[in-house]
Write a structure and sequence with these properties.
Blueprint lengths: L1 H23 L11 H31 L8 H9 L10 H12 L4 H29 L1 H5 L4 H7 L3 H26 L11 H25 L4 H20 L9 H14 L1 H39 L5
Helix pairs in contact: 1-11, 1-12, 2-3, 2-5, 2-9, 2-12, 3-4, 3-12, 4-5, 5-8, 5-9, 5-10, 9-10, 9-12, 10-11, 11-12
Length: 312
């Protein structure tokens, strides 16, 4: 069954990615590569992506602390920074397996590391849901513009009931997650109050990632604050679906297709496709950078641990 799901996911990725290329490939814009502002926006987008990964690393350290796991400063963070590169391996689980292996190398038991990753997935999805809920409550017109015009118009008066349904879904999901972890962590010490910090970090992380996409849209076609802010709920939806899709390495194909659909109504299909591809390039460059930094940091820490404390 898992292999079948991965195969179906790969086929969906190929089909959806092909549709996005077909939809936007006919109207690609000419990029203003000779303008410093273009590169400035892209540089800011990359900087925000790097910030988001630093936030995710700190959130992972905070998630481990829920289970009373305290490692040397920076050690837990490097587990995520190094393992993230594995998300580009088909199957969408290699980065989790890699982090599990690194955590075990650092003395964290497999059971605790597995529970921490389960909690992290729940916190990430909750953070995305909360951020989308905030947009639905405070900017319903902007958020519903992600939908086709006819459907968005018919749902405009239902923004509050939709928000209430989403909030109820988030609450039920959290209740089930807490119950599941408590049932599976009979031998682990828990400090649930510490989960608030990584949850908040994941919310800010999503915000940084959405703004990173917004910077790319401004580099391509400066269209004002509407499209810039619309990039946040677009990215939340695209990232979540890409993460949940089996067989999509790093959400490739699914995320870009949803970005094209979400931003296409305001940017046009061609500029939206260009924004999706450029932002993916920024993400890959960012992931390579944090992998190099995290790997180097782990090497230095390992050398320090091996050498032991200085002799007095």
């Amino acid at each position: 069954m898992p292999r079948l799901l991965r195969l179906i996911g790969v086929l969906v990725v190929i089909g959806f990615g092909g549709y996005a290329l077909w939809k936007g490939g006919r109207d690609l814009p000419i990029l203003p590569v000779g303008q410093p502002l273009f590169w400035g926006w892209l540089g800011l987008g990359l900087a925000l992506y790097l910030v988001s990964q630093a936030l995710a690393a700190r959130a992972w350290s905070g998630t481990l602390s829920v289970f009373k796991v305290l490692l040397p400063p920076g050690r837990a963070e490097t587990q995520l920074l190094v393992s993230q590169i594995g998300k580009y391996i088909p199957g969408n689980v290699a980065h989790l397996l890699g982090r599990l292996a690194l955590a075990r190398m650092d003395g964290v038991s497999s059971a605790v590391a597995g529970l921490a990753m389960l909690l992290e997935v729940g916190l990430v999805l909750t953070a995305g849901g909360l951020l989308f809920l905030a947009f639905l409550l405070f900017a319903p017109g902007l958020t519903l513009s992600l939908l086709p015009p006819g459907l968005a118009g018919s749902l405009a008066s239902l923004s509050l009931p939709l928000a209430a349904a989403l909030a109820a879904g988030i609450g039920m999901g959290l209740w089930y997650l807490v119950r599941l972890i408590r049932r599976k962590s009979a031998l682990a010490q828990l400090d649930p109050a510490r989960a608030a910090k990584p949850l908040a970090l994941h919310v800010v992380n999503f915000l940084a990632l959405g703004l990173s996409l917004g910077c790319v849209t401004q580099a391509i076609a400066p269209t004002g604050n509407g499209t810039f802010l619309l990039s946040i709920p677009v990215f939340v939806v695209a990232w979540t679906v890409g993460f949940l899709m089996p067989g999509a390495p790093g959400g490739i194909g699914v995320r870009e297709g949803l970005v094209v659909l979400g931003l296409g109504t305001s940017l046009g299909a061609g500029p939206a496709l260009t924004a999706a591809l450029l932002h993916r390039a920024i993400c890959i460059l960012g992931d390579l950078s944090i992998f190099a930094l995290g790997y180097r940091r782990r090497q230095k820490q390992t050398a320090q641990i091996s050498n032991g404390p200085p002799q007095g």
